[in-house]
Design a protein that fits this description.
DNA-binding; two-stranded antiparallel ribbon; alpha+beta; 9 helices; homodimer
DNA sequence: ACCTCTCGTCTCGCGTGGCGGAACCGTTGT
DNA sequence: ACAACGGTTCCGCCACGCGAGACGAGAGGT
């Protein structure tokens, strides 16, 4: 076998066809694909027909050429939830924690709340507890506001209508101030939270983008107010954005 | 062979594994997948290893279970551009044109402008010309505003800073009014344009969503002001939204 | 309208590559 | 320590996929 030991040849070829179809934008013909991969055109035709049966590729009725199928898109949607975001993000979060000496984390939206999927504690031994796997409301934490700022406005309205719990006197619970805050987050590219969930607890967060520019997660830095002072926030915001961008790149996304 | 005549067995099985991995959210084990598809576990293992080689699936280092890989996501991004949006949308646009007796169209964002990818003229023979393949600025047409409303705010700021051309006295060229208009579009789920590009030309538009809820295109209805009167707009907006939702469903998206 | 060039699919016999039984590890749980 | 379980690897047999070539359908040139 041309490739390493234990690959199934036909499957490997089929996968190569799939990838080649992805690279050639638009459609591609059997003959062209076969030539590009060094296959016999009858082989390519047979493999493509098999993929088509499962909807991974589709064929243009008029030209007979092939293109990627809809189910690829549906698969990708599943893949994103499944993807090992945690494993990819951890090294970057560790770097960020070392750099800032604070606790860093990564969160995603899960059933209308912020789910922390990874956390790295800073060297300062102020116990903060492990939030991995736990959920908090979106409106009162920095990462939550980053993710909320990427939702459709209709979603935000729905959440507000359902009621926002007030945790401290600084928690934003009214619609108008919240919309203004989210607009500010979008404009600046990062969010802050100054004692909005718990007095004395501050945070900064920045968005992680996928290949299409959609926000899929948020990187945050948080710590006690006496260390994470307002004057440090601009600097921390830059670092959070850099880390978020690095993670974006590693999952195949645009850093934008 | 169990399936129809001319499929490549191993490829078909590999494709089935891929789909099965998509259906089981999160990861899935070799044994479980093999049982679900009626395969021998050694076969499943071999096929999965082959898919992994191409990055279509990845394997968790700790548990040994498999999940969908990153390249699926990258493929899907290509697939969306490749996808036969036009072919899928056309029948729906035709229905809409028959229903409303107006001209209907479908547009996407292409290099920061609105690209019309499909158009169906209504039965009323007021010549409007074929816009297929042509581009217009985003800020002054209904579909453009729908698509703009889905952009990151930073993008909108960049466009405004670059300058918005004023075509009529109704064209929105200032930042603040534009942001308010886009917020209105998001809230209502549709956009209008009343003589903002050309006096006497009105339009309504609604967003088409993909599987992840991201806005990828806009359906519009447009016509001369004397027919497309303000009082007809609510009714047309509903129809535009229904058509957009129908297209969303047909490309595997959520109607939301 | 003709021929010709190209492209995708189908047929078919050959021989190799994939299948599945079973053995082999590494982990987990009791 | 043992058993149970899940993923990988080995190996021999035979079916299954491969590739040469034929076939039919368009497209385009003269």
């Amino acid at each position: 076998m041309a490739l390493d030991g234990n690959a199934v040849r036909s499957v490997d070829r089929a996968a190569a066809l799939l990838l080649a179809l992805g690279e050639s934008q638009g459609e591609a013909g059997v003959t062209e694909l076969a030539r590009r991969l060094g296959l016999h055109k009858s082989t390519a035709s047979r493999l493509l027909a098999t993929l088509q049966r499962r909807g991974l590729v589709e064929q243009d009725d008029e030209t007979g050429k092939y293109r990627l199928g809809i189910v690829v898109i549906r698969l990708a949607e599943r893949a994103e939830r499944t993807l090992d975001l945690r494993g990819i993000a951890l090294p970057e979060l560790e770097r960020l924690a070392r750099l800032t000496h604070e606790t860093t984390g990564l969160g995603v939206v899960e059933s209308e709340a912020l789910l922390t999927v990874a956390q790295v504690d800073g060297p300062n031994l102020i116990a903060v507890g492990d939030w991995t796997g736990r959920s908090t409301p979106l409106h009162c934490v920095a990462s939550g506001k980053v993710l909320m700022a990427a939702l459709a406005e209709r979603e935000v309205l729905r959440l507000v209508r359902r009621g926002l719990v007030s945790y401290t006197e600084r928690t934003i619970v009214q619609l108008e101030p919240l919309l203004e805050e989210l607009a500010r987050v979008r404009r600046r590219g990062y969010a802050t939270a100054i004692g909005e969930y718990e007095m004395g607890l501050n945070a900064v967060a920045a968005p992680v983008h996928d290949a299409r520019g959609t926000v899929i997660a948020a990187v945050d830095i948080w710590g006690p107010a006496f260390r994470l002072t307002p004057r440090r926030i601009p600097e921390l915001a830059v670092q959070a954005r850099e880390t978020a961008a690095a993670i974006s790149v590693r999952i195949g996304g645009a850093a934008a």
